[in-house]
Every structure is written in C-alpha cells, then in structure tokens.
Specification:
Bound molecules: iron/sulfur cluster
CATH class of the largest domain: Alpha Beta
Strand order of the largest sheet: 2-1-3-7-9
CATH superfamily of the largest domain: NADH:ubiquinone oxidoreductase-like, 20kDa subunit
Length: about 375
C-alpha cells in the first residue's frame, strides 16, 4: 500500500489501515486531555473533534534557529498515533522535511498564504538589525517572510525560546537585533511555546486544542499556554521534599547527589521557571533534566540566557527572585512553608502577577471550552 493510500479516507479509516485500534486512539486522546489539564471526559470530545474537523494548512518557518524544535516535534510521543493526528494538519511548507525546494517550495507557501485561514509555526528568532540581512531566504528577510505568512493566518504558534522571546540570538549584546515573533506580528493571535527546545507533547496538545475548540489555549502574562506553563518547575519537582527539608547537593557526585537531593545550591532555576517538564518529561516520557541530576536552567523564561546565567550559580539575576539566603538558612533541615518564604523575598508578587494575568485568560477560554464541551457532550449522549 502506497503512502497516498495510507493517507486517504477518514481518520478512522487511516487508523485502521495503520493497525491502530480505536481504543489506542482514545487512550492517546486521554493523554492529550491530561496534557491540556482538561477533565478526562474531554478525551471523547477531542477524539470526536479530531475525527470530524477540516484539515487546516500549516506553514512552519525556520529563522535564526538550530532546528531543535523540529527535532523535538519529529520525536513526538506515540509516533504512530501522533503521525495520524498531525496528518490532520496539512504541513504545506517546512524547510527541514519538505520534499519541494527552491521556487516550487516558495510557490506552495504563497498558495497557502493566498488561501488564508492557515496556521503559522515559527521556529527561531527574527533578526531586525541592518535591514534584517542576517537571515534571508529566497531573497527576502525573515521578517518579510513572517509578516507575509501571518497575513490572513488563523494563528501564529512560536515554538522554542528563540521565536518566543529572541532566545540565545537575542542574548546581550544581541548583535543581529533578534526579536520574537509576537513583537513583529499584529492582528493575529500568537501563542508562545518556549523551551530549548519546546516539548513535542505541548506542541501537539496546542494543535489538538486548536482543532478541538477552534481557538488557542488560555495563556499567562508571557503568552504561554497555562496547561503547560501554569506551574513552576519547583511546584512539581520530585526533589521538592528535599528542598523543604533543607537537603541539598553541595557538589556534583557527592553523596547527596547520588541520593537525589535538591539541586538548588548547584544552580537549579526551577523555583523561578514555569514549565511542565516534571510531568510531561522528555524522550517518550522517559526522564527529564532534574530527574537525571541536572538542575533546571530556566530555558522557558524570557531572556533566560541573560537572566539565568551563570547556570551553575544560584539564581543570580532572576527577575523577582531572591531566595538565595533563604535557601541557605533552611539548609539546617527545618521544613518551612516555601510559599511564605518566597512571598517574604519578593517572589510572591512575581508569581501572583503571573497568576492574575493567567486567571483572566483562563476564565475566557474556560467559557469557550465549556460551550464546546457541552455541545459535544450532547452529541455524545445522543449517539
Ligand atoms: S530547587 Fe530545583 S531541584 Fe530543588 S526542588 Fe526546586 S526545582 Fe527541584
Ligand atoms: S527542566 Fe528547566 S531547563 Fe530543562 S527543559 Fe525544563 S524548563 Fe528547560
């Protein structure tokens, strides 16, 4: 059976041809609902939406990047099922994986833009200094490509820290004038999925949310979806009990390191970083940086290369954070409510500000999700 045959028919037909049972597909949808922090009953809602929705076109642009997000995305969990779901979007342009090249590729992109209603994924930052000459493709600057692709798009999804916030190219002194996608696009909803790289599960879940509800998920004050960036690394960390107990690694390879104690004194930025790495993990959910004994470097925070470095020192200039002395003091082993400590040192305000912005966005999208959920629930009951 050829690739074309495998791609034809409804989603259920294609699942069948790939030997994927409906049960396995529903299990995958349950995982998507869990990733999106939706109640379990939404698995059926997502499944039904994915089975019936129209196939939107997607343009994936790569600018000042390392292709790390593409690599991450191509290694999505449950690849066989994810392939089918991702097949629900028509990836009309992606420099790394498309077969077309040169004028043929540009023509395909232009046709998609002309039709409108497409999704634009942006990977890498956009240079703006010296007329944007530091990244040109097919005779146009990255900025021109982004502005053209965003025209008439349904949404722009910035994947990775470079397209979300400028990333490493924008680190001081930012020689190319690198900027985020959001700062250069107007009139189109933009969502940021920062990380170095972005987690493939979060990219897939964002697409699934858009396909299910016809809108991007609710975001926090930094434009990140709450389902993935609503909590700090520190809130879901398996080493948290050791932080609270004042049990810290003091040197790489010491007894505390071997026992899996807290990495705060080795420079872990988990207390000021918002991301769901601890629950989603990486490499098919096998593990994550802190799980293997390396502190979080705060890669999903704006300007992390400037504000979170040096990576192996304790929170040197992290915005709104100053628990260094606090963590030192609780090193004597007294279990103390860290929320209260953070509040005393300014972190409370930092977290509260984010939560306030998040709360407003959450209320708006929760209403949309509830409407869509009720509608589909009724349909499910009727069937
Ligand atoms: S400081 Fe880092 S290692 Fe320690 S509990 Fe917080 S996130 Fe985990
Ligand atoms: S643990 Fe921290 S540095 Fe590692 S991927 Fe997650 S947010 Fe980035």
């Amino acid at each position: 059976m050829g690739a074309t045959d495998l791609a034809e028919g409804t989603l259920l037909d294609r699942l069948d041809r790939y030997g994927i049972s409906r049960r396995r597909f529903l299990t995958y949808c349950s995982g998507l609902a869990a990733t999106l922090a939706l109640p379990p009953r939404y698995a059926k809602v997502i499944a039904q939406a994915l089975e019936t929705q129209q196939k939107p076109a997607l343009i994936w642009l790569e600018f000042q990047d390392c292709a790390g997000n593409t690599e991450s995305f191509l290694r999505a969990r449950n690849p066989a099922v994810a392939d089918i779901v991702l097949d629900l979007v028509s990836v009309d342009y992606h420099e790394t994986i498309m077969a077309a090249a040169g004028h043929q590729a540009e023509a395909s992109k232009e046709a998609t833009i002309a039709a409108g209603g497409h999704l634009v994924v942006v990977e890498g930052s956009i240079p703006t200094k010296d007329g944007g000459v530091y990244c040109t493709i097919a005779g146009k600057t990255a900025r021109q490509h982004l502005e053209e692709a965003a025209e008439g798009a349904a949404a722009v999804i910035a994947v990775g820290s470079c397209s979300s916030y400028g990333g490493i190219p924008a680190a001081s002194p930012n020689p190319t004038g690198a900027r985020s996608a959001e700062s250069l696009v107007s009139g189109v909803p933009v969502i940021n999925l920062p990380g170095c790289p972005a987690n493939a599960d979060n990219i897939t879940a964002t697409l699934a949310h858009f396909l299910t509800f016809g809108a991007l998920p609710a975001t926090d004050g930094e434009g990140r979806p709450l389902f993935a960036y609503g909590k700090r690394i520190h809130d879901n960390c398996e080493r948290r009990a050791h932080f609270d107990a004042g049990q810290f690694v003091e040197e790489w390879g010491d007894d505390a390191h071997r026992k899996g104690w807290c990495l705060y004194r080795m420079g872990c930025k988990g207390p000021s970083t918002f991301h769901n790495c601890g629950s989603q993990r990486w490499n098919e959910g096998t593990n994550w940086p802190i799980g293997i004994g390396h502190g979080c470097v705060g890669c999903s925070e704006p300007g992390f290369w400037d504000t979170m470095t040096p990576f192996y020192d304790r929170l040197p200039r992290a915005a709104g954070f100053g628990v260094q002395t606090t963590a030192d003091r609780i090193g004597v082993g007294v279990a103390v409510g860290t929320a209260a400590l953070f509040g005393a040192h300014g972190v409370g305000k930092y977290v509260q500000r984010r939560r306030a912005a998040a709360g407003e966005a959450k209320a708006t999208v929760a209403a949309a999700e509830a409407d869509a959920g009720q509608e589909l629930d009724s349909e499910l009951e009727e069937n």
